[in-house]
Amino acid sequence: QVHLVESGGGVVQPGQSLRLSCAASGFSFSSYGMQWVRQGPGKGLEWVAAISHDGNNKYYADSVKGRFTFSRDNSRNTLFLQMTSLRTEDTAVYYCAKGWWMEGLENWGQGTMVTVSS
Amino acid sequence: QSALTQPPSASGSPGQSVTISCTGTSSDVGYYNYVSWYQHHPGKAPKLLIYEVRKRPSGVPDRFSGSKSGNTASLTVSGLQAEDEADYHCSSYAGSNTLVFGGGTKLTVL
To answer: So what's the pLDDT on residue B1?
Structure first.
């Protein structure tokens, strides 16, 4: 059974940094591309970033490019999202998800809340 | 990376059918057959309902069906049940290794 658990959310001030983690279990982690998706308060889902199964290819939404870095440790079955220069508009629940463009995001975690506020 | 357009709300009575639309452009929904739909009960993990426009993952009831015409994709929920009350989100591959979502539709079962 696939299990994804996000952690690392919290309250930070604009301009500060935060690192999110996503612990995965129940599947062959190193064989799958993974993604981060967020949902701001009262908003729809927003794609944030994707990483290939081996971590060699990373893709970002324009809204986070240059500020967020997506990485993975296949030996620990863990994803990381390093977020820098945070803005108030980055306030959202951040979900990690298993899947790629064609087959959809077939499994999601329950999310971790990030609040950017002065 | 402009968001896809969904109606903010939809509703239907138990047993009825409801269709939710998802409008994009000729660069995303209209070009690729990589439209997905997700069901999201607040506070829970989103659930994949439909991928590649009309395919259902195992375990998803056939009451949920997807289609596409031009730049608009649609999700139809037939035989509405109380537990179908949730937020529904569409997404489409938008090329250049990017994904775009819709604004979400809140489905109310009357």
So the answer is: 64
* Nearest residue, CB atoms, B101 vs list A46, A57, A103: A46
| DSSP labels, A74-99 | TTTTEEEEEE-S--GGG-EEEEEEEE
What is the C-alpha separation between A61 and A41, in angstroms, rounded? 19
Q: What percent of chain A has pLDDT over 90?
A: 98
Greatest pairwise CA separation for chain A in angstroms: 41
Find the mean pLDDT for residues A33-59: 97
CA distance A89 to A85: 11
Cα–Cα distance, B38 to A30 (Å, whole number): 25
The answer to whether B29 and B83 are in contact (CB under 8 A) is: no
Query: Residue type for B50, please?
Result: I
Which of B53, B106, B47 is CA-nearest to residue A101? Answer: B53
* pLDDT tens column, B1-32: 679 999 999 999 999 999 999 999 999 999 99
Most B-contacting residue of A45, A94, A106 (CB-CB within 10 A), to test interface: A45
Place of tokens 């939710």: B20
Q: Is A100 within 8 Å of chain B by CB?
A: no
Structure tokens at B77: 């929920």
**What does the alpha-carbon distance between residue B28 and residue A6 come to, in Å, rounded to a whole number?**
29
Tens of pLDDT along B47-83?
999 999 999 999 999 999 999 999 999 999 999 999 9
Residue type, B39: Q
